[in-house]
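Kindly review this record before class:
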Amino acid sequence: MKTIIWISIMLAITLGAVFSSAKGTGRITGHVYDPATQAPVAGATVVVVGTQLTTHTGTDGAYTISNVPAGVYIVRAEKTGMPSLLQRISVNDGQTVTLDFGLVTVQDLPAVLESTTRKDEVKALERQRNSQPSMPQVPGSASVGKVKGMSCESPAMSWRSPGFESYDTITENSWLSALAKPLSTFSVDVDAASYGNVRRFITSGQLPPVDAVRIEELVNYFDYDYPDPRGKHPFSITTEVAECPWNPEHKLVHIGLQGERVAVEDLPPSNLVFLIDVSGSMNQPNKLPLLKSSFRMLVDQLRPQDRVAIVVYAGAAGLVLPSTSGSDREQILCAIDRLEAGGSTAGGAGIKLAYQVAQQNFLDDGNNRVILATDGDFNVGASSDSDMERLIEEKRKSGVFLTVLGFGEGNLKDSKMETIADKGNGHYAYIDNIVEAKKVLINEMGATLLTIAKDVKLQVEFNPARVASYRLVGYENRLLQDRDFDDDTKDAGEIGAGHSVTALYEIALADRDDRDGTPLKYSDRTVRHDSRHSDELLTVSFRYKEPTASESKLLAVAVKDRNTRFANASDNFRFAAAVAEFGMVLRNSPEKGSATMEQVIATARAARGEDVHGYRAEFVSLAETAQALMTPVYGVR
């Protein structure tokens, strides 16, 4: 019997090999070009995802990949400084398939890279280099040699997540009755880290984990060109109502807040402390080398009145650079260049030292901020989320604000970094490439460095005579109790100069005037008479504090339904709706209705508008890639 089984197994293997060899091969060929100029892109990498098949384009942008087994594949084209692009393709035996890629160039990026990023640092993001040993940094002292964190020389890494990343579970907001619960309250959120993280997954050929997709952060990644504020408040409120694209029987309410914009030359002097994680987990090309390139760009923007100190932490925390004037740029860059990775992660000690240095150099009329750059992998010392929360909450009383920049993949602790930023009166951004670093640290420098309002809350009151029920799209981890809106002791989000915040509500309209419902014995659940005759759907109230104030200020605006069809809504409205749909499709949300990735792509492409920096065009490309990844693929072995 055993002999028969063995013969059967061998026969199956033999037949499998025969059929496999009979499958045949084909060839993929094409060009990579810049769609804006039609110029060829030389040196781009083209990869058949899930295989060892890869090549580079020549000076004419052309490439060829031969001996591709017949099947269906995802093919990725990429080059440093350009967002990756993936396409789905079918290869048959003996067939040559033509596949062209248009890689979008972010405006002005080459000049930025040339002036701020050294060639060896760019190479470090692409290939393996041999790291050199170094002397450890003594806590509290300045260094004249290498310290833990030296540069671009990092071992090779896998660009696939091994499953050690952590994300907080998201339970999507449910529908609420406007009569039973007319108030909806939440802390504003200007974080956009989720978008960069989602992009990182998709451009590497994977769909993101469901809980990595925070819809409000996807929406808030983009600028919506809201009008500048007028009058005594540093904010404007913009509202719009139209058909909901994924459920035309409902309405979608778009609420936009725009913070006062401040030109870089008009920013107050900055007292910055770079708190840099140089632990062993940062020893990967898309972590410390990318971090160093990013900070070089920021340093290049400093003025003589600005000051920078650098604190690092690994097995212990150390002062790499005392507070130094922005006029001593070479000294600051030299300190950054000497950084290298190694050791465990004493995150708590690093945070304490960074805040201590910031307080020692505190500017009464300036911007005092710690910029924490890490993968979030705190594993020695105060490491639990609760310990970190208490530490950051205590330190924020000093008047020093916090920005958290996340880097890397594989062991990314997204939930921890978001928590730290939230508790530190700060915001959290994820930097997956040098393009994103330019966006966060150059294009949005004022918003990143200067806080114009803290403890910012938004409350919407729905008119139950016009609205039957509603659902807030996203912001699940920012919800507040209704009573917290008027409580100035309750912590909430911060907004930087030029920051905008967008919120979307899906609403079901009341289909009759009588919204009183079944009479109750112990309470009065009725619609006020004057509400029945009002054409207002809702009122948006917005409360904020100035950066050094303890009492809040209030703005409010009423919103009416103009019966606008979705096709006639503004570009901003339609694009934000497309991004929200994108998130719901990725999450396979039970509320996605008729939303599809095809609909996302069509809507976003038609609503691109001026798109000065090309971010909306990149989104369309990202959605197309996601659509390809969501289509079943075979042939990859």
User: Anything to note?
Assistant: Residues 4-22, 107-162 have pLDDT under 50 and may be disordered. The chain has three domains: 25-102, 176-262+452-516+527-629, 267-441. The first strand starts at residue 25 and ends at 33.
